[in-house]
Amino acid sequence: MTVHEDQTADSEGPAADDVLVVDGLSRRFGDLMAVDEVSFRIAPGETYGLLGPNGAGKTTTISMVAGLIRADAGTVRVAGQPMSPSHPQPKRHIGLVPQDLAIYPELSARENLVFFGRLQGMGGADLKGRVQEVLDLIGLADRAKDKSKNFSGGMKRRLNIGIGLLHEPHLLILDEPTVGVDPQSRNSILESVERLSTAGMAVLYTTHYMEEAERLCDRIGIIDTGRIQAEGTRDELIRLTGGVDQIRLAGTGDLPQAIESLRQLSAVEQVDHDGLALRLTVHDAPTAVAEIVTRATGAGMSLADVEITRPDLESVFLQLTGKALRD
Ligand SMILES: Nc1ncnc2c1ncn2[C@@H]1O[C@H](COP(=O)(O)OP(=O)(O)OP(=O)(O)O)[C@@H](O)[C@H]1O
């Protein structure tokens, strides 16, 4: 886990096979420091999330990583090679999926992929084979012949992702790919990203949706006002801000005996009695809850209700920045 500002950290150095190493990346627009010394790294098969609200600096960061805009300071290494305006070659290892759709509505899914593949200098049997692989990866093989103008929002986004995958990049960058799509389409996009990650792809994923970061990302950088405020796995970030799982047991019966018995469980840190219910502070509530219920009832408690409360990244963000993730 790496913690920035005044927090202490046990930061690990970059591994030799990291697909992406970003160090001290900064960019100013006039008086605004849009990205301020952003550093992170992504290993093969790892999904790294930049989680932050609108205007946090996510798009500016990935635009610099992808070589679309110049950085004022900092370095980017892709697949072990430094990248700069004078040395753009490592760009070929990056697949960028921008926020806006870049597909031709009158062309089918397959025709779009063939068109963009040719633009990238691909052709012949290689292109044909790769297009089929990509159609499978994005789950559009059975709609390959349909014009993309007839696709749902999520299918169009997946086709957009497919275009970014054609040249077999080592790193796929997705900029808020689910904004403006319905929940079902969102799920199919997330499943595609999960499939790619399982296949070994390194993914850089920007979002302001906490649920997506929690579901997809192995590590998350919480970004606000251009700075990464904290970085780690979901659980590390939650521990960092002192978040704990709680279980509330409402019921009647021999409560003192239940408290005594529950205090002996290693997962239980603390048991309080608020008059109406027992309130437990626990490690990993979803795993511990079955044993806790068994203990409480075994000790003579008759349960009326069991409620689990887990802190989430929204509360971490609030604590770190004093603001909500969404307006
Ligand atoms: N070309 C530009 N000129 C001036 N200001 C810019 C430019 N591009 C971005 N900004 C500003 O830089 C800040 C960071 O913007 P950026 O687009 O990187 O944020 P974001 O986290 O991607 O949010 P969003 O999802 O809204 O794009 C914002 O205040 C934005 O207004």
UniProtKB/TrEMBL annotation:
It comes from the Bacteria. The keyword Ribosomal protein does not apply. The keyword Nucleotide-binding applies. Pfam families: ABC_tran. Coiled coil: none annotated. One of its GO terms (molecular function) is ATP hydrolysis activity. Residues 20-250 form the ABC transporter domain. Keywords: ATP-binding, Nucleotide-binding. InterPro entries: AAA+_ATPase (IPR003593), ABC_transporter-like_ATP-bd (IPR003439), ABC_transporter-like_CS (IPR017871), P-loop_NTPase (IPR027417). This is ABC transporter ATP-binding protein. It comes from Aeromicrobium piscarium.
